[in-house]
Amino acid sequence: MSFSFQHSDFPDDFLFGTATSAYQIEGHGFGGAGRTHWDDFAATPGNVVRAEHGQRACDHYHRYPQDLDLVRDAGFDAYRFSLSWARVMPDGRTPNPEGLDFYDRLTDAMLERGLKPCATLYHWELPSPLADLGGWRNRDIADWFADYTHTIMSRLGDRMYSVAPINEPWCVAWLSHFLGHHAPGLRDIRAAARAMHHVLLSHGRAIQVMRDLGLTNLGSVFNLEWATPADDSPAAQAAAARYDAIYNHWFLSGVFKGHYPAQALDGLEPHLPANWQDDFTTIQSPLDWCGLNYYTRKCIAPDPSPWPALREVDGPLPKTQMGWEIYPEGLYNFLTSTAKTYTGDLPLLITENGMASAESPISGGVHDPERIAFLDAHLAQVLRAMRDGVPVQGYFVWSLLDNYEWALGYEKRFGLVHVDFETLERQPKSSYLALTELLNR
Ligand code: GCO
Question: What is the pTM of this model?
C-alpha cells in the first residue's frame, strides 16, 4: 500500500517531519533526570495501565543516534522533539550539567544529519518539587518556566530551527486538573481554571524570554478536537459549543485575540486568579507560526451534571486502537477555521497527527496499512486546505517510535517504527517504508 499523491504535490519548502516527546521516549532513569509528577502519578495505583512509567521508556537517551538515523533515512526534513524540564533542572530550579550536555549532543546529532531541530520546552514532565508547590495552580510557575526557558535556550537557542513553549495547553490544564486523566490527576474546577490561565501566561513569558535572547521562529502547539453535537437538538448544540469553547477556543482566543470565550467563562470565571485580564499583553506576545495537533472529533451530548453539563457519546465512525473516531475532514475544518478566525496569514503547521494500532511483528515485517490509510486521508485534507489558500507550512507524524502513551502505558502503539519493549529493538513498520518511498522521490 502506498500514498495517493506525490511528494511533488506539496511545495518545495513544505516541511515533513516526525514528532516525539522527552518523557515518552528518553528514559528518565538516566543522566541525572529528576523526579516528575508523572512518576508520582504512575506510582499511585489505578492511574496508569500496569502502573507503567518512563524510567526506561525507549532508552532514547542512549540510542538517539540510531533513532535520528531513522528520521533522516525516512527523508524527513525536520524533527520535533521536547526538552525535559526535569532533566535540565531536576529540582525545577537548579541546572543539571549532564542534562544540558545531553540536549547539546542531541541537537548536534540532528544538525549532522541535516534535520531541522524543532523544540518544545514542556511536554508534561513537571519536576515533582514544583508540583509540591502547586505546579500549574501556582502563578509563580510563570517565573519558574521563564527561568527554565532562559537556562535551556541560552545553551541551545543558536541551533534551533523553531521553538514552541508548551505542548497542548488543554492537556496540561483541563485533562490533568479537571478530568484527572493525566498527572497530577486532579478533578477540581478551581485548580483547572487556574491551570487554564497560568499555562497561557507561562507560554507568553517564555516567548518574551526567547525574543530577548534573539531567537526567531517561535510558535505555539495547540491540540484541537472537533466537537459534533450528538443530535440536532438545541441542547446538544449548546453542549458541543461549550466543549469547543473549553477545548479549542480558550487557548486560540487567549493567544490571538486577548480574551476568553464566553461559553467557557460562564463556568470558569469565578475560579480564575485575581486580575487575570491584565495578563493578556504577555499571553498575546506575537508568534511566528501556530501548530495544530489533530487526532479526532468527539460527539457531545448535554448532561444533567454541573457545568459544563456535557458528556461524550459513542460516535458512528471507524475508530483507532485508542477508540478515537477517524475524521480527516476535521483537520480541513480546523485549518480553514483557525486561519479565518485567528491566524490569518500566519503559517500553520500540523505539529502532530497519527494513530495507534495494535500491530505486532510477524515474519517479513510489521504491517500497518491502516496507518498508511490514516496518514493518506489526513494529508489529502491538508492539500485541500492549501488549495483553498490556507498557509500550511509543514506536517509532523506522531510518532517516530512506539512509546509511553501516558495513562495507557506502553499498550497503545503510535509509532512508524515498532519497539519491542523487552529488547528495545526498533523495527520500521510498513508505514515508515511507505513514507520513505514518498519522501525520497
Ligand atoms: C499529545 C501528545 C502525545 C500523545 C499523542 C497521542 O499530543 O497528546 O503530544 O504525547 O502521545 O497525542 O495521544
Answer: 0.98
